[in-house]
Amino acid sequence: MDTNGVDGGHLTAFIERIEKLEEEKKVIADDIKDVYAEAKGTGFDPKIMRKIVSLRKQDRHKRQEEEEILGLYLAALGME
């Protein structure tokens, strides 16, 4: 149905696709949470593991640059 230039059928199809993907995203997020819980149960620190996952996503050059700046800031604060 076309209401004031809006194709309701087309819009509904997009909304339903988004809703399905959101549900899949929730299931995947729950699966990831379960993996972290399992890792914690075997003695690993999930907080550190999350940090490693985040670092692995970064470009190597960008990560090295951030680590250098972090080192400078820690040194300036007397924390290194």
From TrEMBL:
Lineage top rank: taxon: Bacteria
Annotated ranges, domain GapR-like DNA-binding: 9-78
Q: Give yes or no: UniProt keyword Nucleotide-binding.
A: no
Molecular function, one GO term: DNA binding
Which keywords annotate this record? Coiled coil
UniProt cross-references to InterPro entries, sorted A to Z:
GapR-like, GapR-like_DNA-bd
Keyword Coiled coil in record: yes
Where is coiled-coil annotated? Answer: 11-38
Family named by the database record: Belongs to the UPF0335 family.
Write down what this protein is called. Answer: UPF0335 protein LMG27198_08460
Q: Which organism is it from?
A: Methylocystis echinoides
